[in-house]
Design brief:
This protein is 71% helix and 0% strand. By secondary structure, it is an all-alpha fold. It has one domain. The two termini are 14 Å apart. The longest helix has 28 residues. The protein is built from 14 helices and no strands.
Length: 307
């Protein structure tokens, strides 16, 4: 379900000239879905530390709002198939950030697989090509910025979820994201009818509203809840590998439905990138300290794009 996001966001890109407006409406849907589960748990905030609240605010602004803007811009300005694959570099970024911010240990094999993932990513996006020419693509630039913000937001999510439940943390995160998008749209002079619902959207109002609803529900809130339900029924390490299958779903959609293909070299680079990132995650699992015998291990934080 996470991988279906491009199926809704790409058509909506042509109906909303400004990415900020589309992300604003996406957050409206997310907040409406989150409210029933978030409101009964607001009492948990009394036990949350200022540090945790700070991480939550950062996660809402950087991950939920800014990250979604850059992902929308990446799909609009680049090859959507390449964009979806290159975002797999995010775990490498979040692992590195966790080392710098929380003092996490990096496994020895991290230094083997992380450079392979980075080099494969450079080949995938065209920074390294057979003719040894340096290529810069605007869409890929947006995708890399998006991966950075989502990676940092994933690390921030770790600082939040140790003190509050998933429904509250996720609900507050998208609420902060909505507030951020409202401020951004207001600052840019977009909070009026002609910008919030342009003629390209009103020309196909019903399908536009349906796509926005599917973007927030089918590709956002629902898969998040299903992911954590799955974590309660299987090992976290196993669930982590299934999480990466969203790339396969995204590629099938962007390649099959929108005919955005990869070259043979890019296909090889994509497979190497995904494999190397999987090995990075596997190596880092070995560095995690085992929980006390009487304690339940906390669930891993999923990719920031879906929290």
């Amino acid at each position: 379900m996470w991988g279906t996001e491009s199926a809704w966001r790409i058509p909506l890109n042509s109906r909303f000239p400004d990415a900020d407006v589309l992300v604003f409406w996406e957050h409206v849907v997310l907040v409406l879905l989150a409210l029933p589960m978030m409101l009964p748990r607001l009492g948990e905030l009394r036990r949350a530390s200022a540090r945790s609240i700070g991480w939550l605010v950062f996660s809402g602004i950087a991950g939920s709002a800014v990250g979604a803007i850059f992902f929308t811009l990446a799909l609009k300005n680049g090859n959507p198939t390449v964009v979806n694959v290159v975002l797999n570099i995010q775990p490498v970024l979040s692992t590195t950030a966790a080392c710098m911010l929380f003092g996490d240990r990096l496994a020895p094999r991290f230094f083997v697989w992380a450079p392979i993932a980075v080099i494969a990513g450079m080949v995938l996006v065209g920074l390294i090509s057979p003719d040894f020419q340096f290529h810069v693509d605007t869409g890929i630039g947006y995708a890399l910025i998006c991966a950075l913000f989502w990676g940092l937001s994933t690390v921030a999510g770790r600082g939040v979820m140790v003190e509050m439940s998933l429904p509250l943390a996720a609900g507050l995160r998208v609420t902060i994201g909505l507030a951020s998008m409202a401020v951004i749209c207001l600052f840019r002079g977009l909070m009026h009818g002609a910008s919030l619902w342009p003629s390209t959207a009103s020309a196909e109002s019903w399908s536009t509203a349906m796509y926005i609803a599917l973007l927030g529900a089918a590709s956002g809130w629902a898969p998040l809840l299903l992911y954590f339900k799955g974590l309660s029924l299987t090992r976290a390490s196993t669930a982590g590998y299934f999480e990466m299958l969203q790339t396969l779903a995204a590629v099938l959609i962007t390649w099959g439905a929108f005919h955005e293909a990869l070259s043979p070299l890019q296909v090889v680079a994509a497979l190497v990138l995904i494999g190397a990132v999987a090995m990075v995650q596997r190596a880092q699992e070995a560095t995690a300290l085992p929980p006390p015998p009487s304690a339940e291990p906390p669930p891993p934080i999923p990719e920031a794009r879906v929290v």
